[in-house]
Here is the input.
Amino acid sequence: MDFSGIPQSTLGETLEVIFGRGWFNEGPDGIGAAPPGTYNWDDDATYAEFEIKVEVDATASICKSYVTVDDAMVLLDELQTHLVGRTGGPEES
Here is the structure.
């Protein structure tokens, strides 16, 4: 599963909802406040692998490997929730 061009703050909020605060080992304020770079994380419980790239333009990409359909759906649902909230999509009309 691979997504790019996501606003960094949106991805940060999404991952915080899924994993809770403090999951991101690179900084206490999560991926939403991380400096540009590539961050890797392995979930020992599910064997999923994550690669998150934060760009200098405050966008981010996420690549998740070895994920279950249920885990993929959770990420998709949370991303949609946060992106619709950011853009004022049809659910806010």
About this structure: The mean pLDDT is 86. The beta strands are 2-7, 37-42, 49-54, 59-65. Helices lie at 8-19, 69-87.
